[in-house]
Amino acid sequence: MEERTRRRLGRVAAKDGGGGVRRADALGRWQARRGGAGPFRHGAQVAIARGGSGSEAVSAGSHAGQRVLGAALAAALALGLAGCSAGSAADASASGGEPAASEAPASAEAAALADVEAMDFEYSKRDGDASYDAATATAVDLSAGAVEGSGAAFDVSTGTLAISAAGTYVVTGSLDQGQIVVEADKDADKVQVVLAGASVRNESGPALYVKSADKVFVTLADGTRNVLADGASYELAEGEDEPNGAVFSKDDLTFNGTGSLAVEGSYRHGIVSKDDLVVAGGTYEVTAAEDGLRGRDCVKVADGDITVTAGGDAVKSNNDEDPARGFVTLDGGTLDLTAGDDGVDAYTLFRVTGGTVTVDAADDAFRSEVLGRIAGGTLSVRAGDDAFHTEYELVVDDGQVDVAACYEGYESEKVYVNGGATRIVASDDAVNASTAEDPTAAEGEGAGAPAEGAPAGDAPSGGAGNPGAAPAPAPGSDEASPGDERPSWRDAAPGEDGSSAPPAGAAAEGGTPPVLPEGTEPPAAPQDAPNGASAEGAPSAERPGGAPDGGGGRGGFGPGAAPCPAPARSASSR
After folding, report:
1. 255-272 burial, b for 16+ CB within 10 Å, e for fewer?
2. C-alpha distances in angstroms, 260 versus 32, 256, 505?
3. What's the angle, vertex CA 127, arms to CA 337 and CA 379, rounded to 5?
4. By C-alpha distance, which of 85, 1, 3 is closest to 37?
5. How many Å apart are CA 229 and CA 288, to the nearest integer?
6. CB 401 within 8 A of CB 379
7. End-to-end CA distance of the chain, in Å?
């Protein structure tokens, strides 16, 4: 544990020195959370529902050595309840009914921080439309400094291509020192920049800089390779810290096409949008000193072959002011993410519905300050810290999840596994439900003191290296939310008849025990499992969140509903 603390301290210190964004108080709360007597505190909850075709196989280290648990509900719960400390007590009820107020203090707060129903997961028709008419487009030859058509001008003295109006611009040639700048009508102009064998390098700023436009589409022409690169230092106005990426846009930015693009972000980030960042096609190689793909309002990936090597986060969305923004959704394509910090870091929600995603992250592979959802896709993960970490809720409805190495696998205040196939190898907990950190707390607030009424073990230790804030509210406090205020996106009954019977394949009390992986010994019962639960299968009434086959478990989308529908494509030209 001490080694993990040192690693986290070192990463936070390094990020703070390099313009990082995670605050020291989050570290303090992280330390406080792990100073307690087990993973289930103040309403932390794990619910695992397994249908006939799903499986969960987990492997986790403990003080007693390796434990390998098989695919059924009873075994998975035995691991979840075991916690990170031998003999720790579980404070949350394992009842399949509605949680009491003290068991779900974060629901209302989570709903306020992340408005999932208001989030825009759609892609417009034009996002995926990489077609253009070369005969009517403005043609630009960067090597010759020539422009044929209207809406653009080239300044030979500065090597700057300035685009000032809506339209399509086909760009070829190279600039060893120059820039493409889009400065059009912010409210009306949609601009398509077709890179057709273009290479732009700018040692003192972004290679592509969108200052204003309604929306910009960067299309990679079929069969072409393109390069956009910056230098290690920028010439910025006094007191300014932007632009800060090799590609930097103040407005919505979409990439599509079938060609390839190499982005080299030597200063800080690779591709940055201050609004939406969408990838709908193409092949990308992004290297960045800090973050690879960064969309403040959101990052949406519908298709494409994307490789990111980042010193910070590989994919990031950081809008913490609007509960309908700050999300990352991966809906298709192939992503290979290598990160010096987090693989995917979303403020409100990370969401995976499809595609093939490989993550090798020094910190968390997937992280959100509020919610996380896995509803499809194939995910292969290695993480220095947690594989999947959210503060309030983590929902697994479908998909293939293979975690080859991590400290903890699924971690959140509430973890719901409704389907899919999961394999986790963890040095600590494979599944950990623990009290949420408050991402909005002021830095240093309440440092060194527990919340009123909280167990003494939850207080951060004093002294250097612990700049943390106060832990989450204690159960029974005014900040605890009643259980009936669960947000509608995960509001589903345990069963159509209101029962909490275990799903098919799970052993009921006294029934057939679960089938474990070949060569695996059954796990020992947790020392302090709640309500008399045992490793041989707790009574069905004491299991949290069971769901019948084909039904959306608690944390899902409701009984009988598709867990996470494929992203719709609207008819708009947004």
Report:
1. bbbebbbbbbbebbbbbb
2. 46, 10, 46
3. 25
4. 85
5. 10
6. yes
7. 49
Q: How many CA atoms lie within 13 A of 501 on its CB side?
A: 12
Q: Which tokens belong to 129?
A: 């439309």
Whether the Cβ atoms of residue 482 and residue 103 lie closer than 8 Å to each other: no
State which residues of the chain have pLDDT below 70.
1-107, 436-574
Distance separating alpha carbons of residues 220 and 210, to the nearest angstrom: 17
Q: For 109-146, give the secondary structure using H, E and C.
A: HHHHHCCHHHCCCCEEHHHHCCCCCCCCCEEEECCCCE
Which residues touch 512 (CB under 8 Å, ≥6 apart)? Answer: none
Q: Are 345 and 313 in contact (CB under 8 A)?
A: yes
The strand pairing partners of 390, in sequence order, are 368
The pLDDT tens digits for 248-272 are: 999 999 999 999 999 999 999 999 9
- Those residues with Cβ within 8 angstroms of residue 478's Cβ, 6 or more apart along the chain or in another chain: none
Tokens 């079938």 sit at which residue? 258
Collapsed DSSP state (helix, strand, coil) of residue 22: coil
| Separation of alpha carbons 305 and 279, rounded Å | 10
Question: Helices 2-17 & 24-33, crossing angle to 10 degrees?
Answer: 170
546-570 per-position pLDDT tens digit: 333 334 444 443 333 344 444 444 4
pLDDT given at position 524: 52
Query: In this predicted structure, what is the pLDDT of residue 327?
Result: 98
Counting every residue written for the chain, the total comes to: 574
Quote the radius of gyration of the chain (alpha carbons, Å): 25
Please tell me the pTM assigned to this model.
0.69
Measured distance CA(118)–CA(116) in Å, rounded = 5
| Residue with tokens 């313009």, as numbered in its chain | 19
Tokens of 358: 């490989």
* Residues 435 and 475 sit within 8 Å (Cβ to Cβ): no
What is residue 448's three-state secondary structure?
Answer: coil
Nearest to 158 by CA among 136, 189, 181, 130: 181
89 phi-psi bin (left φ>0, alpha ψ -120 to 50, beta other): beta
Region of 499 on the Ramachandran plot (φ > 0 left; ψ -120 to 50 alpha; else beta)? beta
